[in-house]
Design goal:
With 277 residues, the chain is of the alpha+beta class. 34% of the residues lie in helices and 25% in strands. It catalyses: a myo-inositol phosphate + H2O = myo-inositol + phosphate.
Amino acid sequence: MPDELLCSGSVLRAVESVVREVADEEIMARFRLLAGGDVARKSGPLDLVTVADRRAEERLTESLTGLLPGSAVVGEEAVDADRSVLDALHGEGPVWIVDPLDGTRAFVHGEEGFCMLVALVQGGEVVASWTYLPARDRMAVARRGAGARLDGRELRAGTSAPGAVLGVATSYYVYSDEAQKEALLRLRSPGFETRPITSAGCAYLDVASGVADAVAFAWENPWDHAAGLLLVREAGGAGTTLAGEPFRVTGGNALPLAAARDEASLRRVLVALRGDR
């Protein structure tokens, strides 16, 4: 199925409508109203899941596959229950990559820094993405080769001033092995100001809109990166793995991976991560 059909205006608008509806009915309806039994802990020490995550993913799965018959969904919660769900990413058919609630800890604590992420993949390539911050009603949409928009307006990442201190959001070290942790710690050096990432999607949007200069991650879950990397690239930014290769949604990437608002900033971040300076 060609990109033109996958990403026709009608499909783009339909997905945006679905995302808004599900966010309103399953996420915002529970925001700051969670009961004790609505929250559970998954594998990691910071890894939470709520009834909102699960219900939103179920609704998105039903609606998105209805929009594109024959498509599959790779969702965070489905993969948590069954890793074989990831196998769909190795096929040629259209696949929706879904994070129903990115930034669950913020959501649980009543903070607004969470989002819903949807990316459409064809043959391993991300062709469109949606990043929605429901508590702030901000919607960013990107289409491969056609640019990015935030709330209907063209989105441009801009450039960092030559030699300026770069603001870089980094993933928590608890999710890193020792080599990855050492790489991320190299960003705690002159020329960089670091802060932790609480939501991958929100962090990518910050880069795409020029609010932040770069991000660096030591994990490769496709639902955390597929939407954001396309958004940054279509806003004029750039992203790559530690090996200087494009991120693969199928996995096996050299980590950390980084994205920045311009090529020069990305090169500075990669040099630091590799310890080349």
